[in-house]
Design brief:
mainly alpha; three-stranded antiparallel β-sheet; globular
């Protein structure tokens, strides 16, 4: 990177150039684009998608989610639930019982993501064989060229 590029990057000029590109990002200003990336990081996270999918059927206890979602650690489940709750996608209801009972459910906002997640899951199911074939061809090519 030369000094002009470094200065442009440090002043945000390079970032502004990215936002001038055509395509879907061109319609948002920098602040909106940053927030959109933040939300896509949240909902694009595999654990968030799996938690939202698991809650699609209705309320669930922590232990139910822990057994329903394959390979998620308890720590990751806790962090994911807290993040989804913070963003208004999941509600946490603590019932005053002995022993205490806590249930999680989707909010209206969280439920509104279900169709997008279902479309992505359907696309994945429809194209997984093709994607796997491309991955294997790429890996084979990379091994031979190394």
């Amino acid at each position: 990177m030369n000094s002009d590029e470094g200065q442009a990057a440090s002043t945000g000029e390079a970032r502004a150039n990215v936002l001038r590109l055509s395509g879907p990002c061109a319609r948002w200003d920098e602040q909106d684009a940053d927030f959109i990336r933040e939300i896509l990081d949240l909902v694009g996270d595999k654990w968030s998608m799996l938690v939202i999918g698991a809650l699609a059927a209705g309320e669930a206890r922590y232990s139910d989610l822990d057994t329903t979602i394959p390979a998620i650690s308890r720590r990751m489940l806790t962090l994911t639930l807290k993040r989804l709750q913070r963003d208004g996608l999941v509600d946490r209801t603590a019932h005053a019982e002995v022993p205490p009972r806590v249930e999680y459910s989707l909010t209206g906002l969280g439920a509104s993501l279900l169709s997008a997640i279902e479309h992505l899951a359907a696309w994945s199911s429809e194209h997984h064989t093709e994607v796997r074939r491309h991955q294997e061809a790429y890996d084979k090519s990379a091994r031979h060229s190394a």
